[in-house]
């Protein structure tokens, strides 16, 4: 069974940093692209970053480019998203998922950025 468990979210002041973690199971990480997505109240789901797990190639949405770093530990089937210089508009439920258009995703971890 494919599963994702996200962690690392929390309440942080604007300008701060968080490192989100995603533990994947039920499949081999390096056979897929893994993405981080977010959903904010009243807004559509947004893909923020992906990693081609087989070679580590990262992709970022413009909204987080330059402020975020995605990485993976294939041996541990984990994907991480380091987010720096957090902004109020980064407040959202963040979840990781398999594929460019997700077929499986986790329950998410809440990130709340305060002023």
Please give a quick description of this structure.
The protein is mainly beta and 115 residues long. 0% of the residues lie in helices and 52% in strands. A hairpin with a 4-residue loop joins strand 7 and strand 8.
Topology:
Elements lengths: L2 E5 L2 E4 L4 E8 L7 E7 L6 E7 L4 E4 L7 E6 L4 E6 L8 E7 L10 E6 L1
Parallel strand pairs: 2-10
Antiparallel strand pairs: 1-3, 3-8, 4-5, 4-9, 5-6, 7-8, 9-10
Strand order of the largest sheet: 2-10-9-4-5-6
Low-pLDDT regions: none
- Largest β-sheet summary: 6 strands, mixed
State the helical fraction. under 10%
SSE succession: EEEEEEEEEE
What is the mean pLDDT?
Answer: 95
Please give the radius of gyration in angstroms.
13 Å
Strand content: over 45%
DSSP summary, beta strand count: 10
Distance between the termini: 40 Å
Number of helices: 0
Indicate the structural class. Answer: mainly beta
Overall, the morphology is: globular
How would you describe this structure in keywords?
single chain; 115 residues; mainly beta; 0% helix; globular
Characterization of this structure:
With 115 residues, this protein is an all-beta fold. Helix content is 0%, strand content 52%. It has no helices and 10 strands. The strands form 2 sheets. Strands 2-10-9-4-5-6 form a 6-stranded mixed beta sheet, with no helix packed on it. The chain has a 4-stranded antiparallel beta sheet with strand order 1-3-8-7, with no helix packed on it. A hairpin with a 4-residue loop joins strand 5 and strand 6. The radius of gyration is 13 Å and the shape is globular. The N and C termini lie far apart (40 Å). The relative contact order is 0.32.
């Amino acid at each position: 069974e494919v599963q994702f468990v996200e962690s690392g979210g929390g309440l942080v002041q604007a300008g701060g940093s968080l490192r989100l973690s995603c533990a994947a199971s039920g499949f081999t990480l390096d056979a897929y692209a893994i993405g981080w997505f977010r959903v904010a109240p009243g807004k559509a789901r947004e893909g923020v970053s992906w990693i081609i797990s087989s070679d580590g190639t990262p992709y970022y949405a413009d909204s987080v480019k330059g402020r975020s770093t995605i990485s993976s530990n294939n041996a541990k089937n984990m994907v991480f998203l380091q987010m720096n210089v957090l902004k109020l508009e980064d407040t959202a439920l963040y979840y990781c998922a398999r594929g460019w258009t997700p077929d499986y995703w986790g329950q998410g971890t809440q990130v709340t950025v305060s002023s």
